[in-house]
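Researcher: Next entry in the queue.
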Amino acid sequence: MTPQDIIQKFSTKEAVFKQARDNYTYTQDVTVQTLEGHTVDGEFKQTTDVTYDDKGNRIENVTFAPQPTLTRVTMSREDFEDIRRQMPFVLTTEDLPQYDILYMGTQHVDEIDTYVFDVAPKKVEKDKRYFQGRIWVDDHDFQIVKTCGKSVPDIRKKGNENLMPKFVTYREQVDGKYWFPTYTRADDDLHFSLGDVHIREVIKYTNYKRFGSRTKIILKGEVPDEKPKEEKPK
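Model: Structure for this entry, 234 residues:
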């Protein structure tokens, strides 16, 4: 296969994965820390049970959230959006026009043979978030199994600096066919105008459980009659 064939194949599989994950509940544990040397001097922790309604809308039920002690950074809207979307990065056929994708070769990663691609946004539109970095695609299932990069763009406005750390996300196979994100880690120095901040983030995704499908299968273009059949009198 050519690199373009591989891209088309895995982006199609990623679209299936994206739809499948919306039919799984899971628990998301987020820990964000700032460090002075080796000492943690601020922390944000949150545990959330994630489900979806019958329209595919994400529902978050926070089950654990102690008072944050962060003082040198704050958790912004973009931070939470990146946790939801960019760190468990998905690249579907619908997303392809937004990115330049460069084939880098093959690599053996954690007992898996993979195709490696560098990914970067073609252009950055206002108020939109993108991924920039490298992805590893399983050469058998054609799904992303590892992501390493960062969310872009960084925001550098007077009185509003919002910088994003580099991160790595690993996926594991769930139910024998879907590669779902299970672990994300960031450990980086953010270069703010008032000084550097060493930040560490760990996100764990656990307890994946399928809760049912909202998809109706239509055969030969016919909508099945959903009315209950009347029973014949005995």
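Model: The helical segments are 3-21, 77-86.
Researcher: Noted, moving on.
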